[in-house]
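Q: Can someone sanity-check these two? First one:
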Amino acid sequence: MSPRTPLRRAVFLGAATVSATAVVVALTGGVAARAASARLSATFAQTSVWTTGHGTVRPGASASFGFTVAVTTTPTTPPSASDVVNVSTAAELQAALANAAPGQAIKLASGTYRGSFVTTKAGTATNPISLSGPADAVLINDGPSGDAPDCPAPTPGWDPGYGLWLSGAPYWTLSGFTVRESKKGIVVDASPHTTIDGVTVNHVDEEAIHFRRSSADSVVKNSTITYTGLVQPGYGEGVYLGSANSNWGCHGNSGGVDRGDRIQVLDNHIGPFVAAEAVDVKEGTTGGLIRGNTFDGRGITGQNSADSWIDVKGIGYTIEGNTGTFTSPGTFANGYENHNPSTSPSFDNGCGNVWRDNKSDLGGVGAYAIKISSVSKCSANPNVVYASNTATNARSGLTNIPVTP
């Protein structure tokens, strides 16, 4: 009998979904060839990477085993970098943010993290990146410092003073930790699909959380915001959606507009001592939801026209199920307001918004729970105030427009 070429032993290195057909042409012996073919077909169906005496055979490659093997492989998606990255120092956090990859979970230990914290790394819809920590994991930025560019963008040598900055970094989830003692709290730039859940932001110079540069389809929920606008009271918003049209030159990255559309503000506690609006909804943004929040208006300053819990200049927002109160100190005109600024390109700014099931206690100071600035400007897309809204201690009543049952 003629000697056969021996089969090399294959070592399993990794699993994948593989479809394989093996055709064996043996030097002699048809039955043995068919048996070998069946064994290889079954084995290739379970594995995708092999090491043989002829080297490593990877998906889609081929090797000589002493007979011919025709293989078609379909490997699974390579595993993402889903490892947990534990950090306990500012330097470790900066490195983790700089090197973040889809699927990673960055976990903060308790403690104070002092420095500039920014990431430009994107997650994906299927593998978002997360940064989480307990409430006593505190991020502080003593900036700003360095020469600022004309428009805010991560720039070597420049620290904007933001407590945490996502720039061009979609699909992140931020949860649990605290940001304080920074120029701004959390800034989300060109980073749609960001989730902020259960964070605390307080004692910041300007606004607490800003979704900017078309960071659409994002959400902030279950979070607590107090003591904003310590240096710039008129810019001390709790949550800021979009940008004023005067800033679209820098932040209008969607056809010249900052389209922070469909952002949700849910179940947060905002105030006291939020120096400007609890939520400022800017022109050119559409379709957001502001629901289930508690607004404590103590300490609102009235500077830069900041004299209400919410100012809506966006289009098609639903504002429902919120509870707002006001007591001294502060300057308080109305609970909710809308305005209709003109922009280029043009939008129905301040129109098509709906208020329902909101409870407002104006402390005997505010005029209307819901003040609509213009009916005529929104005649084609009117604002709607439902009778399910309630007002107490309002000098002028629930609203200045007819109520919808």
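And here is the second, same format, sequence then tokens:
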Amino acid sequence: MSQLLVRSVMRRLVSGGTCNRCISSVSAAAAVVFREVHKPSSESVVMMSSQRLRFSGQWWRMMCFTSEPPSKNSTTSSAVRKEDEKLSGDSVEKMEGEDKVALSSYWGVSRPKITKEDGSVWPWNCFMPWETYQADLSIDLSKHHVPKTFLDKVAYWTVKLLRIPTDLFFKKKYGCRAMMLETVAGVPGMVGGMLLHLRSLRKFEQSGGWIKALLEEAENERMHLMTMVELVQPKWYERLLVIAVQGVFFNFYFVLYLLSPKLAHRVVGYLEEEAIHSYTLYLNDIDRGEIENVPAPAIAIDYWRLPKDATLKDVITVIRADEAHHRDVNHFASDIHYQGKKLQEAAAPIGYH
């Protein structure tokens, strides 16, 4: 055992280790040997074997990781590591202080800086300045498609029946009524656009622009909803009602569009006519002073390019005009199907607001 200790010390000294570390290691090893020698013989043999294995493992690790005196190169590499850590920390702090999108700039998908006409930063991610527009308020609001065929009458009376529970539930709460209406109105365009998209992929044919036109309609209706949420904070039971109605209506319209696109578009056309009527009643209550004509939300001002001092009445007016355009688009689509043609045979009214 003493020979083993001597050889170990000599190896440690040759490898360049410090005296203090050698002495401490030797002292610890000697203490282990001393304790084991004074144990009973039967137990001592077993413990000595395990301690020898552990002791040899420790020395093997010490031999593999011998300490070297610090050199100029090691000092330089340490300084480089510290500098790299400092730079990486500074870059993280800089990115955290800026827009969070900068964290994904590695993939090259970060949005460039977009400004308004006055030079201020564009505040919205849900739509861009080139997607905004000024609503066409000259559109005829009194247009009505007179139901003539059997399917037209089915569509017309289906919408009229759907209006009854809506009137009973919301009565003259036009803000909540509009919010519920927009959660439903955003479904048909998405369903129709999705099914036309799948048809185009499945049959290797163009859509005539109708996919984009219907998805534009769905997006426009969603922006109506985002605006109404700023004006009317829905209660918990209204949120539950939205979930239930959307689930039922989505599946209903999905099946209806598969079975009869002309009936589906006609139903939406009559729904838009009812929306025009509801928003007209909303405006009448604002004019009578029964509903406060509050300032327009910022999202509405930027989306419809309204003046800075726009009010609720201005917002409802442009939304009503949008609904009139959607009415025309869906009745037009239904008429195309009634003529025995496909939608792609007629140019889609893209950007028709």
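A (reply): Looked at the second one. The chain has a mean pLDDT of 78. The longest helix spans residues 174-203.
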